Amino acid sequence: MAENKNNTKQANTSSESELTDHMVALNRVTKVTKGGRAITFAAIMVVGDGKGKVGFGLGKANDATAAIEKGTEAAKKAMINVPLRKGTIPHEQFAKFSGSEVILIPASEGTGLKAGGAMRAVLESAGVKDVLAKSKGSSNPHNLVKATMLALSQLRSAYTVAQNRGVSLEKVFKG
User: Fold this and answer.
1) Residue 116 lies in a domain
2) How far apart (Å, rounded) are the C-alpha atoms in residues 101 and 135?
3) CATH number of the domain that 124 lies in?
4) Helix (H, G, I), strand (E, B), or coil: what is residue 147?
């Protein structure tokens, strides 16, 4: 039994080593107290495997490296699956979180990742190669990451649509 436990641990560490992390924002927060200024850091991290799994997390600590580590751990715990089709998303998707609005449009092969800032980090981590993305409203990285994750979580694959409708996959594509 001990061998099985070791094998599963190795499998977990190898799957975790495939994950890539992107730092979206690192904020220095200063709080003025009676004893002086207290400086802390807040880091927004995005983690993904490049094959359809992505998550984001916020880490806060007195040290920047500790905040980054906390954000990465939180992102690993909050991962979602994103349905991908030939390197792009299966359909258009709109999402809004607080003041940020996000529009994701599938693109043909070779278009590339047309997205900026926080959206680009999330889409790269998810493994999306070709997509047109537009952000409207607030450019706050916290809200942009959350709106992008909401849009990705609302995506449905053709297989899921066929199952929900009770029809064949061919009928979903051909109508």
Assistant:
1) yes
2) 6
3) 3.30.230.10
4) helix
Name residue 55's amino acid: G
**Domain boundary residue, one of 80, 95, 116:** 80
In a shared domain, residues 107 and 52: no
Strands 36-48 vs 53-61: parallel, antiparallel or unpaired: antiparallel
3-state secondary structure of 106: strand
pLDDT tens for the 175 residues of the chain, in order: 344 433 333 334 445 668 888 899 999 999 999 989 999 999 999 999 888 899 999 999 999 999 999 999 999 999 999 888 888 888 899 999 999 999 999 998 888 888 888 899 999 999 899 999 999 999 899 999 999 999 999 888 878 878 888 877 777 776 6
Domain boundary among 31, 51, 80: 80
DSSP assignment of 18-82 equals T-EEEEEEEEEEEEEETTEEEEEEEEEEEEE-SSSEEEEEEEEESSHHHHHHHHHHHHHHT-EE-
Cα distance between residue 95 and residue 93, in whole Å: 7
CA 122 to CA 116: how far, in whole Å? 10
**Whole-prediction pTM value?**
0.83
- What is the C-alpha separation between 59 and 80, in angstroms, rounded? 19
Shared domain for 29 and 93, answered yes or no, is no
